[in-house]
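User: Show me a protein chain along with its predicted structure.
Assistant: Here is one chain, sequence first, then structure tokens.
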Amino acid sequence: MAFRGLAAFGALGRALSHRDARLFFAASLTSWTGLWVHRIAVTWLAWEMTRSAFWVGMVAFCDLAPAVIFSPIAGAVADRMDRVKLTMASQAVIATEAATVGLLIATGNLTIGLLLTLEMCSGIASSFAQPARQSLMPGLVPRTDLPAAVACNSLCFNVARFIGPAIAGPLIAFGGVAPAVFLNSAAYLIATFTMPMLRVAAEARRGHAPERSIWADAVAGFRYAGSHPGIGPLLGFAAVASILMRGVQEILPPFVERLFSRGPDGLALLTASIGIGALFSGLWVASRGRLTGAVALAVGAVGCQAIFTIGFVATSWFPLALACAMLMGAAGSVHGISTQTLVQNAADPAMRGRVLSLWGMITRACPASGALALGTAGEFLGLRLPTILAMLASLLVVAWGLKRLPVMVAVLEGRRETAG
């Protein structure tokens, strides 16, 4: 078997040695590559239509912010129904939205208002797809390989972050935005049609039988995460850090043009650089295959990302900006993979969908909030000053995380290492 060659990667190779895991991650890589092509396309389109950092931030906000309302509900739904069917339905909606945007662009009928509305529809569907799809992983690999599978999942996202922009830049430059958006629609359709091929363990495919209302289940998920001595502080730390830091990556077009005087090629290079950094650091984290040290990595990576982001906005020299972007991506990947692995392992199986929906809310809604705030501030204060102030605030958050580190390590690492 070809995947035996991955043995050098330790736990990562073991996770990919399973047939269903390979199918799952191949579909994830396909859909997320389409997603990154789509993101590059619509953010650049919004910039071309408005020349406003605010409206670019609004596009990101409408795509990501629905997670605030819908992710807790989606987590409760994922914990009580067939997760394969829920994933298929959600991904089909995303494919349809992308096809609609592409048709409106091709016919010249797309307005900024329609774009915002359609991106919000896609954001709602993504809020349901994320917890449903991620909750399937324990049914695809043995328990001992779950940390590596979670890391591999995040790694696929970051590989796509590299491949997507590499495709998007030339495609937009030579073919326009519409083909890039249609590509995303095709990618999500492919991912949707592969879902029935998965052989998922019954306990991972279906959640528990409904015992109360969806609202009550959603509230129970918040209570469980908030009262957990490890999950609660870790997710709170990630949420605040994400609001302060991730907005930069969501509204790159204004940075590309205003700070570096570049066009779509510059946007693609910057996004691909972030993806390259995320890819290599993700490979390293995934190959660790253990929980020991993961909390320290999750906290420390945020401090590194803040410092590299300051370097990114402080320079006008594009090669240095690319290097900083690569390091930003590396630090962000370490934080994301470490946090998701810890949460996935610590969560009670009956609460897994709801806890993962909260992680999805953090990774989607918090960057959206940060992007909108940064885009608005950028209209009045420029892009550099608000970004640097946000990064300095992030370092204060890191100090808080370091203070809570011993408790989180004892709960999140000690508990599962003993259980594993």
